[in-house]
Each structure stands twice: as C-alpha cells, then as structure tokens.
Amino acid sequence: MTASSLDTPYRGGFIGADHHYALTVYFEDTDAAGIVYYANYLKFMERARSDMIRACGIDLAGELRATGRTYAVADVAIKYRKPAFLGDDLLVVSTVEQLRGVSVVIQQRVMRGGQVLTDAMVTAAFLSADQRPHRQPSEWVDRFRAIAKAGPDAS
Question: Locate the Thioesterase domain: which residues (predicted)?
C-alpha cells in the first residue's frame, strides 16, 4: 500500500443495481453494552446514500453550492432485526426502488455477512433553494433509472 492510497477516503461501488458501502462499528457508534445505538444505523445509511449518489456521477455538493438545491429525507420506514456490535464489519446495500418527479425511494439494508440487521425504505425528496419540492434534474433521473435497471454503466 502506498501513502497516497492511505490518504484517499473509502468509496463504495456498484455490483449490478446494488450499491455496496462497507464500514466498521467503532466505539462511538455503540452504547455502554457495545451494541450499535439505533440512530446510528440512520447515519450509516446516510453515508451509503451519499456515496451512491456520488458513485453514479451526481455532484450533490456542487449542486448545493451552485443552486441551493439538494435532497432531504422525507420519509423512513425502518425495521431493526438484529443488533450490530463493537468491532463488527458491516455492509450497507442500497438499491433504487422507485423514481418519482421530485423524489427517489431507496431500499437500504445494513448487513453483517449474510444477515440483514436493519432494513429501511428511504424517500429522499429533491428541494429547491427555498426548501420546496422541485423536479430532479433530468440527467439525474436518467442516472437513477440506469442504476435501477442494472447499475450505473447500463445503457
């Protein structure tokens, strides 16, 4: 490993239509018993969604700076199935399930090995600079459609 590779942040990636984002549970993620605090699953999923959007070629930070438009979570339906623990290596698998004019619905599963620990359906609404629902850029809609079909390289 080179010093430059160690200085590069981790990036997830696509396997078909699924975006994979790996992480390790650290002490700060857990309660006094070493069990992941429930709200931290939402943080894990947020990181994975942000990485998925970046991986499909959308510069959300640039859009926010240039126009004030961004995504905001409008709804989350979450099911906690099994706990994760200090030191566990986890995988967040994100899949575009539904695309609407002003929102995208993403299924996210936090997994340890083959076990699903947490399963969620997250609706992210695209908002204008004045925080009102706004149609997503057509290029972004096309990218999400490609992901939903077979991954970001699908035609």
Answer: 34-116
Mark whether 29 is an active-site residue: no
How many Å apart are CA 9 and CA 100, to the nearest integer? 31
6 band by pLDDT with thresholds 50, 70 and 90: confident
What are the residues whose beta carbons fall under 8 Å from the beta carbon of 111, sequence distance 6 or more? 90, 91, 92, 93, 117
Active-site residue, selected from the candidate residues 31, 59, 75, 142 = 31
CATH homologous superfamily of 11-149: Hotdog Thioesterase (3.10.129.10)
pTM over 0.85: yes
- Map out the domains of the chain as residue ranges: 11-149
